[in-house]
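Title: Prediction job returns without error message
Component: structure pipeline
Severity: low
Priority: P3
Assignee: unassigned

Description:
Job completed but the reporter wants confirmation the result is attached to the right record. Sequence as submitted:
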Amino acid sequence: MWSLAAGLLVLVLLSQDAWCALPASLATGGACPPPFTKIGDECFYLSDVKKNWNDARRRCQDMGGDLAVPSDVPALDAYVFGKVEGPGVWIGGTDQYNEGVWNYINGDPIKAQDWSKSQPDNYGGREGCLEIRSYFDPPVNDYICSVEQHFVCEIEISCPKPFIGIGMECFYLSTTALSWNAARRQCQQMGGDLAVPSDVKALDTYVFANTKGSGVWIGGTDQYNEGVWNYINGDPIKAQDWSKSQPDNYGGREDCLEIRSYFDPPVNDYICSVEQHYVCEIQV
């Protein structure tokens, strides 16, 4: 898989020059910008164009990416062949540069468990490029590079500094402490808003590895409708993210959402006027 660094990965199945819309149901979860759909922490897109492996790679590079190096081949395979008939789709692996030595184009080896039975076999002495094949299980296969078929590109979308990528989202952990409302204003001045994480536990792990605070503000509140807890984008807080017995509105004053270091799950209601670190999120 391509190194994330401070970026996000997007898997793209390319059309010639235009993108086609995905059903809205596939673009949920606060992760992939339309028209992409999320698989794990990667996003991909399906089209109707076909190219040989080398032309496909050049097309991906023209778009600022490269052929895909998927972290979860079976998941990508399941999605791809729910949308195209195949039989094969190019991904980013080859032995063209060192015959018999199969690696992804980022240098990573192809996982043994992803290869189809008896593959790679270099059938006819001409198979030097990597595909996933619809009727193979596992799906990875070597095939003739000159054959034109669908392909998957991978593009890195970087988070603008000082934001960092966690999954498919861009977050900023503050170095100063503010009340919830002041924190929200500060996030908005940065072009974002308080965080609405799709994976609260992943954010919690990052935050409390990088700050000593007991609590950190995120973007949820019942200030506008007492007892009705939602994120600031209107989404409800997931029941499984609330800490045990929360929200409890302790003392009748807890109207703002935080993640708390020693709670598991970490989400808690707390007093909005308390100054503490906060997490901003920006859309990319």
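Comment from assignee: result matches the submitted record. The first helix runs from residue 53 to 62.
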